[in-house]
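Board notes (copied after class):
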Amino acid sequence: VKIICSHLGGALPMLTRRADDHVAWEAPDTPEPPSQAVHRLWFDTVSHCHEPALRCAIEAFGADRILLGTDFPYEDGETFVRAVEYVMHAADPGEAHAILDANAMALFHLG
């Protein structure tokens, strides 16, 4: 099962360390820390073009776990262009290529 979390995982990029700190006493039989488990998830880029949020998600999960996302059908036109452009501004060229192209190809076995 492949799980794609919307909106950069919500607050998850900021709470992974807290989850690690609490898992020992809240769920002591958990086989791995949450900070490792999140690396099996995928995340879309919907953050309404907020570059710091995307940078945080890249730092927390790695650019290789992030996919281009939009809020279709609630937004259209220029918003779709911005959804791509903000990734190119917030990420370095290699990260942007992964997010905008390579990651989805790998996830869906299209290459």
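Comment from the instructor: Residues 68 and 98 are 9 Å apart (CA to CA). Strands lie at 4-5, 42-44, 66-67.
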